[in-house]
Amino acid sequence: MAALAAAVDFARDGDFEGLCSLGGGNCRHVLDAAGVENVPAEPPVVMQSIVLPETELNGSTQRAGRVLILCNEGSQQPTEILAFFDAGMVRLIEPVYWSGTTINDSSITGGSQTAAVDCSARPSTSGRFVDGIA
Description:
By secondary structure, the chain is an alpha+beta fold. It has one domain (2-131). Helices cover 22% and strands 25% of the residues. The chain has 4 helices and 7 strands; from the N terminus they run αααββββββαβ. A 5-stranded mixed beta sheet has the order 6-5-4-1-7, with no helix packed on it.
């Protein structure tokens, strides 16, 4: 996913304004909690992707997006990121992929999905973005 690859590039380059430009209004708060000094050396692995159901809004069908469940090297705590289209581009809520943030809204995902993800089974990335979905 190009948006996630862009998030990794921004974080590695120390461009946290660029990173937060990919996401929502809480990015700075999530970034402060996760720590800019804690950017992983290796990109995350997408361990699971949950496609969210389409919804009807004002008579038209809206794509809801997907939840990406990511694992980072050296961390047992997965991170959940919501990816969706907005004004012709993919947005990530929130793009701080090493934060350990989960999406606990059961109306979206049926509750957090991270309990089913074992980050110790994370494949090696060898410095590149990997989609680890089997």
